[in-house]
Write a structure and sequence with these properties.
- The protein is an alpha+beta fold.
- It has a single domain, classed as Creatine Amidinohydrolase (Alpha-Beta Complex).
- Helix content is 25%, strand content 24%.
- It contains four helices and 19 strands.
- The strands form seven sheets. It has a three-stranded antiparallel sheet with strand order 3-7-8, with helices on one face.
- The radius of gyration is 17 Å and the shape is globular.
- 50% of the residues are buried.
- The mean pLDDT is 97.
- The structure holds 2-amino-4-trifluoromethylsulfanyl-butyric acid and cobalt (II) ion (CO) (2 copies).
Length: 275
Amino acid sequence: MTEYVSVAPDDRAEARSGIIKLHGPDGFAGMRAAGQLAATILDALVPHVVPGVTTGALDETVYRMMLEAGAVPATLGYRGYTRSSCTSINHVVCHGIPGDKALKDGDIVNVDVTPILDGWHGDSSRMYLVGDVSLKARKLVDVTYECLMLGLEQARAGNHLGDIAAAIQAHAEKHRYGIVRDFCGHGVGRLFHDSPEVIHAGRPGTGPELRPGMIFTVEPMINLGRADCKLLEDGWTAVTRDRSLSAQFEHSIGITDQGCEIFTRSPGGFDRPPY
Ligand code: MF3
Ligand code: CO
Ligand code: CO
């Protein structure tokens, strides 16, 4: 049995309890502002994601933009993580740690940012193409974006989380790609990671029912090869076990009476590459 609770304005969210929060207009306004900041930062990165730039330099840019906007990076100090973004190159599935590594021609890279603005977490990530990227890598990136958007087409009141998962899974499997099961989307709001867990592969009609006021991320990770992941020694970096390429896009959304509102849509129209 899924439990839901309506969140009162100004309610300082408690730690995750398994109960799904239903947010009001103030939550949507807060997430709209935080989400648009995340999207603006991802837009501003476009000219910076070029061969030779280090992921550490990109992270510095993200940090500066967040502070300038009056926000703080949710990842900084989160469970011991010390950066303002995650930068996941090629076979890195997610949670790549920015550092001295320089991007090179032909790389694909995901940048994932979460500014906390006025207490609300805007969580979003996109893929960037570095220089000349192979057709097979570009196709993986395209299909992964389509997976996210086909999932979001199912994000409306009365549907279930399983409907989102099934739409993503069907599209990825049509292309014989692997859908990562080790990491999920999540409720988001005043908390970074809240209930529910949002799976990216599953059966239609299963899982919690979607209700107006729910706010969560959808963030499918799709592999060119098998779905299996492993964690590197640093305790964060997740890679594909078969070292095949992996892609991911992430939006933060809210369920409305009409369908869903995408809080993290690109203001510049840079939702999908090429930018
Ligand atoms: N932004 C990631 C997500 O989509 C979480 C990153 S946590 C970190 O949920 F510590 F690795 F940065
Ligand atoms: Co997320
Ligand atoms: Co994220």
